[in-house]
Specification:
single chain, 89 residues, alpha+beta, two-stranded antiparallel ribbon, 2 helices
């Protein structure tokens, strides 16, 4: 699952507008939660990429879709899409 490149400048503009409109920075529906979601998903994708690259010569391992998990943090609850891998027979 490749997503478009994250536009940090657009995020900053949008977050500023939302904060000016009274939206909270943290908590349920807070401004920070979408950024945290993107950082976590990108980190998990990178971790799996690294794992698959390291195991390429030793095992028959590949990507096997994504699963969705709900993260509960002080910045609010949000769903992340986590990559999965599977061993081939």
């Amino acid at each position: 699952m490749k997503e478009d490149k994250f536009d940090f400048e657009a995020f900053v503009r949008q977050a500023g507008e939302q904060l000016c409109q009274g939206k909270p920075f943290t908590g349920k529906d807070g401004v920070f939660a979408p950024l945290l979601k993107r950082v976590l998903e990108a980190s998990l994708e990178g971790e799996l990429d690294s794992h698959l690259e390291e195991s390429r010569t030793l095992e028959s391992n590949r990507r096997n879709g994504h699963t969705h998990k709900t993260i509960k943090s002080s910045s609010g609850a949000f769903e992340v899409s986590t990559p999965r891998d599977a061993m081939l027979p």
